[in-house]
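Hi everyone, sorry if this is the wrong subforum. Our group has a chain we'd like a structural model of before ordering constructs, and none of us has done structure prediction before. Sequence below.
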Amino acid sequence: MKAAELRTKTRADLEKTLTELYKKQFELRMAKGNGQMSKPHLLTELKRDIARVKTVLNQQTGE
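Answer:
Right subforum, don't worry. Here is the predicted structure as tokens:
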């Protein structure tokens, strides 16, 4: 997910995307806790995607 793609979305779409990312992060954390996580790098990528969405939301609020 790139920041340029996120900037074209509306605020409602970004909030929906953020909620979905949080749900996915929870699922990955549970898989990690159970020892079932085969790709641990996905958790790091997901955290960065969440940060990107939050950054774009804050930029839209400041305008």
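For your construct planning: Residues 27 and 33 are 10 Å apart (CA to CA). The chain has one domain: 7-58.
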